[in-house]
Specification:
alpha+beta; six-stranded antiparallel beta sheet
Length: about 100
């Protein structure tokens, strides 16, 4: 089954609650399946990324004592880019398309 959710322009009429629900849904999908996310980069160009948050597809992380963790924000989603084999992030409000397959 192929499910596609599309929003051609980041919408300014969504409430904070709408964005929170969208973030929770997207992170939930990323945790169970690879997802293709299309978004606008800060320079205005479009980027298509095949990414995931599935635990079995993530690299092992070495914990370094005393190392500061990054500041978390609800506006940005950190994901593992399956093509680049590295961690990347995107601004949630810049997402224009989400594609995923559920089997």
């Amino acid at each position: 089954m192929n499910i596609t959710t599309q929003n051609s322009t980041p919408t300014s009429d969504w409430t904070a609650s709408d964005w929170t629900r969208f973030r929770k849904w997207l992170v939930g999908m990323l945790q169970v399946s690879p997802v293709t996310v299309t978004f606008l980069k800060k320079d205005g160009s479009e980027r298509v990324m095949n990414c995931t948050l599935q635990p079995n597809l993530l690299p092992k992380v070495e914990i370094v004592e005393g190392k500061e963790s990054r500041k978390k924000t609800e506006d940005v989603v950190a994901v593992y880019d399956l093509d680049a084999q590295g961690w990347r992030s995107f601004t949630l409000k810049n997402v224009t398309k989400v594609q995923l397959e559920i089997s």
